[in-house]
Automatic annotation (TrEMBL):
<dbReference type="InterPro" id="IPR036188">
    <property type="entry name" value="FAD/NAD-bd_sf"/>
</dbReference>
<keyword id="KW-0274">FAD</keyword>
<keyword id="KW-0560">Oxidoreductase</keyword>
<feature type="domain" description="FAD-binding">
    <location>
        <begin position="2"/>
        <end position="345"/>
    </location>
</feature>
<dbReference type="GO" id="GO:0071949">
    <property type="term" value="F:FAD binding"/>
</dbReference>
<dbReference type="GO" id="GO:0018659">
    <property type="term" value="F:4-hydroxybenzoate 3-monooxygenase activity"/>
</dbReference>
<keyword id="KW-0285">Flavoprotein</keyword>
<dbReference type="Pfam" id="PF01494">
    <property type="entry name" value="FAD_binding_3"/>
</dbReference>
<keyword id="KW-0503">Monooxygenase</keyword>
<dbReference type="InterPro" id="IPR050641">
    <property type="entry name" value="RIFMO-like"/>
</dbReference>
<dbReference type="InterPro" id="IPR002938">
    <property type="entry name" value="FAD-bd"/>
</dbReference>
<protein>
    <submittedName>
        <fullName>4-hydroxybenzoate 3-monooxygenase</fullName>
        <ecNumber>1.14.13.2</ecNumber>
    </submittedName>
</protein>
Length: 394
């Protein structure tokens, strides 16, 4: 089997890339390890930057997001028993939309299926071949198993969109690869709750007991997170224990409280910052979590995956329409600018809001001083807001 672009992974990066290439008349095949049901139900991100929304709208994928997503013009920082607002739209002219990642995935899969796009679920034993640019080398190919048979997909380019645990990054030549990493000694305990929203906007809370985040999914379903030990077990947390921890961290001195409800999903995720460079070797390119991870505090991961795809689509379009490869050659350099900006922002938000094991009471007071600063200085609030909505210059 032959195609122009072979894509590994049907996350936001792989599916969106395939769809944007299709709109430009470029053929691709997407190979996904999991089933359609699994990718459409895995609970992950929730916050879309305006640039991400604009791209989804331009690609004709925005109808359900516009109907069911919630546009937010600000969020709140809670600390020292009070809540202070960061007025995103007033400070930057941009907003964010809360719309779950698995809903984006459903919209993307539906668009690929409607366009008769080649999308194979449940593939195993994926391996990458001949992607180095050596003169005289044969075309790149991806070998895989599907429905009991071995297959080989020949293509012009292979794009690794297979997330942090995929095979593509490990196929990059070790001699050129350099990884940067910071693992945090804490994780996030996430819950889905059947309840009305506790507040109009998202709340990021710093407390001596640890971080908490109050987000939303719909008028009836809320998403909440709190900092925990990454090795902790979900079973160690009864509903009562979860509510008392969240109340302790988020409720404010004026008597306002989060709204409880029936908890119907619990999970724990670890947190790390990670960048793998370069993002290209010959005809192999990496996009999204395959190349970089951010801690979720800045809500950047999915948005960064989308931003890689935007850069890569323009580069592939220039190659197929004009025979120009300069944008492809500059892919790592172009994509990494936004990646490192987001890495810094996510690390900074994480350090400002979490209980850190390596700090003294002095540094804990510095966290509060910084929160005071970003909620009172318009310049500091604007810098935070520009990073959060993704309008910051890179
Ligand atoms: P993935 O979504 O990981 O997709 C990769 C796909 O490749 C998967 O479907 C996988 O099954 C498949 N795959 C893996 N290996 C193989 C293989 N060998 N062969 C074939 N297929 C393979 N980001 C935000 O922007 N905003 C947020 O608010 C936000 N909140 C988050 C909250 C949490 C709790 C978590 C965990 C993450 C959050 N993120 C957020 C991050 C976001 O979910 C990821 O950055 C995003 O999913 C990256 O997309 P991707 O397409 O690069 O990778
Ligand atoms: C959500 C996740 C985040 O990481 C974040 O910063 C804000 C919201 C969410 O899942 O709703």
């Amino acid at each position: 089997m032959r195609t122009q672009v072979g894509i590994i992974g049907a996350g936001p990066a792989g599916l969106l890339l395939s769809h944007l290439l299709h709109l430009r008349g470029i053929e691709s095949v997407v190979l996904e390890a999991r089933s359609r049901g699994e990718i459409e139900s895995t609970i992950r991100a929730g916050v879309l930057e305006q640039g991400t929304m604009d791209l989804l709208n331009e690609a004709g994928l925005g109808a359900r997001m516009q109907a069911e997503g919630a546009v937010h013009h600000g969020f709140e920082l809670a600390f020292e028993g009070q809540r202070r607002r960061i007025a995103l739209t007033e400070l930057t002219g941009h907003s964010i939309t809360v719309y779950a990642q698995h809903e984006v995935i459903k919209d993307l899969v539906a668009a690929r299926v409607a366009a008769y796009g080649a999308l194979k679920f449940g593939v195993t034993d994926v391996s990458l071949h001949n992607f180095d640019d050596a003169p005289g080398s044969t075309r790149p190919s991806v070998r895989y198993r599907h429905e009991g048979f071995e297959h080989e997909l020949e293509c012009d380019f292979i794009i690794g969109c297979d997330g942090s645990q995929g095979v593509a990054r490990g196929s990059m030549p070790q001699a050129v690869r350099h990884d940067y990493q910071r693992i945090y000694p804490f994780g996030w305990f996430g819950i889905l709750v059947e309840a009305p929203p506790s507040a109009h906007e998202l709340i990021y809370a710093r407390h001596d007991r640890g971080f908490a985040l109050i987000s939303t999914r719909s008028p009836n379903v809320q998403r909440m997170y709190f900092q925990c030990d990454p090795k902790d077990s979900v079973d160690a947390w009864s509903d009562d224990r979860i509510w008392s921890e969240l109340h302790a961290r988020v409720d404010t001195l004026d008597g306002w409280q989060i709204t409880e409800g029936r908890i119907f999903q619990k999970n724990i995720v670890g947190m790390r910052s990670f960048v793998s460079t370069p993002m290209q070797a010959g005809k192999l390119f990496l996009a999204g979590d395959a190349a970089h991870i951010v801690p979720p505090t800045g809500a950047k991961g999915m948005n960064l995956a989308v931003s890689d795809v935007r850069v890569l689509t323009a580069a592939l379009q220039a190659f197929y329409e004009e025979g120009a490869s300069d944008k492809l050659d500059r892919y790592t350099e172009t994509a990494l600018k936004r990646v490192w900006r987001a890495e810094h922002f996510s690390w900074w938000m994480t350090r400002m809001l979490h209980k850190l094991d390596d700090t003294s009471p002095f540094e804990q007071r510095l966290q509060v001083a910084e929160l005071e600063h970003v909620t009172t200085s318009r310049a500091a609030a604007t810098a935070l807001a520009e990073n959060y909505v993704g309008s910051v210059a890179v």
